[in-house]
Amino acid sequence: MKTFMGLATAALIATLGSQAMAEGDATKGAMIFKRCATCHTVEKGGAIKQGPNLHDLFGRKAGTQAAYVGKYSDAMKQSGVVWSEDTLDKYLADPKGFVPKNKMIFVGVKKPDERANVIAYLKEATK
């Protein structure tokens, strides 16, 4: 019984977590993304700045954006990460913890609701 309750609780937490992420506010996310826009663009054919352009981000393997390929850290190229809502949430929460030795100097977005909003914005803006 104890194991079943533990599994049920874990399933509920996972469901609530994915619902919270799905409910991010893209408009609020656009405002938060302004912190990121110093280094990243989102539109197709957008400029390469300090960081890679994020167009077509979802489903892309980390370290493979063609115009930025020679500038990625070895850590990012070798991470095996494929960008999704979940991997972005973890990365944005703690970039150096999620991909140690990556070269992004941003400390992350610590508030879960702000990360959900940025991810909602990126889902719209990077299509």
From TrEMBL:
InterPro entries per the record? Cyt_c-like_dom, Cyt_c-like_dom_sf, Cyt_c_1A/1B
Q: Any signal peptide, and if so, which residues? A: 1-22
> Which keywords has UniProt assigned to this entry?
Electron transport, Heme, Iron, Metal-binding, Signal, Transport
The superkingdom of the source organism is Bacteria
Residue ranges occupied by any Cytochrome c domain in the UniProt entry: 24-126
> Keyword Metal-binding, does the record have it?
yes
UniProt keyword annotation of Electron transport present: yes
> Which molecular-function annotation in GO is an example for this chain?
heme binding
Please provide an example of a Pfam family that matches this protein in its UniProt record: Cytochrom_C
Mind telling me what this protein is named?
A: Cytochrome c family protein
- Give the source species: Govanella unica
